[in-house]
Amino acid sequence: MSITWMTLKVVRKELEAENVVSLELAGPTGKELPTFTAGAHVDVEIRPGLIRQYSLYGDPQECRRYRIAVLRTETSRGGSVTVHQSLRQGDTVRVSVPRNHFQLSEGDHPSILLAGGIGITPLYGMARTLHRQGAEFELHYCARSEARCAFLGALQDADYRDRVRFYLTGQSPDYRLDLDGVMSNAAPGAHFYVCGPARFIDQVLETGRRHGIDEDRLHREFFAPPEPASDADPDGAFEVRLERSGKTLEVSADQTIAQALQDNGVEVELSCEQGVCGTCLTALLEGEADHRDFYQTEVEQAANERIALCCSRARSPLLVLDL
């Protein structure tokens, strides 16, 4: 999956909430930018070699700017800290053309939007789009406090504010989201969209499955993968064969498939390198993968048709890739 890049200017940087800044990005000449749809994200090269994905929360009808929000995290690998501390209004950054792996499902059905913390960013754009379409929807927004609610004022003043519910989990158990209640009271055929911390997403998906909601009505987008199990077994070596060239390579226990390919001169398009963005998904022609990405659904992983080269491994001695 090839990424097309643009050079954009940071025309505005503002504090949206505690530890959250918003960036407005535009072309140096103010020209129109490639269009996007609600739920889309862009890759941002914060500095050479450091690429992160951020959801677009702006109005898709705005054609001359992109808006993203960045949470500074305690476990930052350099991305969020650099954005908060070093990136300034007037700086230029490389930004990808928008891609959407978290689209609103087509059809006449209610939508339930479930946001945890910074996961509000794509869902904010979805709410705006659904309202414009006259569609039935609800937005449930969980955060620790009002100070940590990005876009709080805008959502409270929105024309659809009667469809927004806030849950300030740090105040009292009474303010916590009742997922069972939301799932059981949802209209038949409703689709659920969730974004936020991995544990929050897992809780929503598990609750939905427990209520018998089909996988094709449970939509999610991870910002980062869940923490790996502390008792995970060490990885073993295996081989990959490149179908187009016939070349066979060994992937050692301490490297990813992507690293093995790059070490042997095979170019691989990478972005998040955590299995959450889908950039490096490659067709798997033979072999059984040990899927460790958080981009594909469980159904897609079970189909064993594509593999994330940045994180997944093998359950069989050999994997044959469409490369």
What do you see in this structure?
The chain is an alpha/beta fold and 323 residues long. The protein has three domains: 5-96, Beta Barrel (Elongation Factor Tu (Ef-tu), domain 3); 111-222, Rossmann fold; 238-321, Beta-grasp domain (Ubiquitin-like (UB roll)). It has helices at residues 79-85, 120-133, 152-157, 179-185, 198-210, 257-263, 298-303, and strands at 5-17, 20-26, 41-47, 50-55, 66-71, 92-96, 111-116, 137-143, 164-168, 191-196, 218-222, 238-242, 248-251, 281-286, 289-290, 306-308, 313-314, 318-321. The strands form four sheets. The chain has a six-stranded antiparallel sheet, covered by helices on one side. Mean pLDDT is 89; it is low at 229-234. Pfam families: Fer2, NAD_binding_1. GO terms for molecular function: 2 iron, 2 sulfur cluster binding; metal ion binding; methyltransferase activity; oxidoreductase activity.
Overall helicity: 10-25%
- Pick out the low-confidence regions: 229-234
User: What is the CATH topology assignment of the largest domain?
Assistant: Rossmann fold
Strand order, largest beta sheet? 4-3-6-1-2-5
Radius of gyration using CA atoms only? 20 Å
Order of helices and strands: EEEEEHEEHEHEHEHEEEHEEHEEE
Head-to-tail CA distance between termini: 12 Å
Largest sheet: 6 strands, antiparallel
Q: Tell me, rounded to a whole number, the average pLDDT.
A: 89
Helical run tally: 7
- The CATH C-level name of the largest domain is Alpha Beta
CATH superfamily of the largest domain: Nucleotide-binding domain of ferredoxin-NADP reductase (FNR) module
Overall outline: globular
Structural class by secondary-structure content? alpha/beta
Content of β-strand: 25-35%
Q: What's the number of domains?
A: 3
CATH architecture of the largest domain: 3-Layer(aba) Sandwich
How many beta-strand runs? 18
InterPro entries: 2Fe-2S_ferredoxin-like_sf, 2Fe-2S_ferredoxin-type, 2Fe2S_fd_BS, Beta-grasp_dom_sf, FAD-bd_FR_type, FNR_nucleotide-bd, MRET, OxRdtase_FAD/NAD-bd
Pfam family, one: NAD_binding_1
Protein name: Vanillate O-demethylase oxidoreductase
Keywords: 2Fe-2S, Flavoprotein, Iron, Iron-sulfur, Metal-binding, Methyltransferase, Oxidoreductase, Transferase
